[in-house]
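anyone seen this seq b4? input:
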Amino acid sequence: MDSEHAHAHPGELRRVSACAGVILAPNPGPMTLDGTNTWILSGPGSDPEHPNYGSHPSAQGRGSWPGSDVVVVDPGPEDLGHLQAIADVGNVVLILVTHRHGDHTDGIDRLHEMTGAPVRAVLPEHCRDGEPLSDGDTIVAAGMRIQVIATPGHTSDSVCFRLPHDEPETIITGDTVLGRGSTMIDHPDGSLGDYLRSLTVLARHSGAMVLPAHAGPLHDIQEVCDELTEHRLERLDQVRSVLNELGRGASSRPSRTPSTRTSPRACAAPPSIRSRRSSPTWATDGRSPREGRNGQPTGPQGQHCPATPGCRRRSAPARSSARGA
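predicted toks r here
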């Protein structure tokens, strides 16, 4: 990770909005970019002597941050130093999980033991003393209201968390929207059709800041989702074109070897997306379970692929002076 362009540093809490801050896990790599972002959520407290009082422009005069209680999103890997840094922030009253991948969930049990906080996720196997999450749930904790948005696609259990009263409004997007690059559709439960529909749902929250699980925040989720959608539709057009050239007898299974097997899936974009294109949006995904977009390898977890020349979008600075350069 290039420290000159880091949005956060391992073990350090960095505030990015009135109610949200990030602690970066020490697990950088091709699939995790700078590492996994563990988000710390808390409504500002009332103690003007707190060292973080008014440290973010949108929180001037609103009291200390974090408050006495905090919510944790995505504990990250089972790294004791990282988990201790999370536990030291404040009284952890709830732990939330965006999806099942190990770089988000491996630290669940240890952090649950350290804090006693319940863990809630879509999948029951990741819950600890808490109910599974459902689309539309509203959670009130740590002085905030958190809304659950189901965003399947990257995985079937992916969810985002919206903080409608944050300043600016923020949405924690997990791996559905990354700080740079485009996520992969994970085998076997990921779905490109679901992913495109999820982008449409998120794009309705125009102006909200993206708080991703990897890389730094992005401003205006609608703009980001529109660019991601356009990229995927262009990719589908390329696949369609190749299949048309190969003819009706073309197969997306050239080999059954582990390195080249494919998992084709027919996907349809929702009507709101189809209307943007002159051609139909039914297509065969034709991706490998170990392959991200443009053939980029995804590794054992197959979580996402970083930015590549095929994707025009790159990370853009969030409208927050608290974010690093």
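The first strand starts at residue 13 and ends at 15. Residues 160 and 173 are 5 Å apart (CA to CA). kinda curious what u guys think
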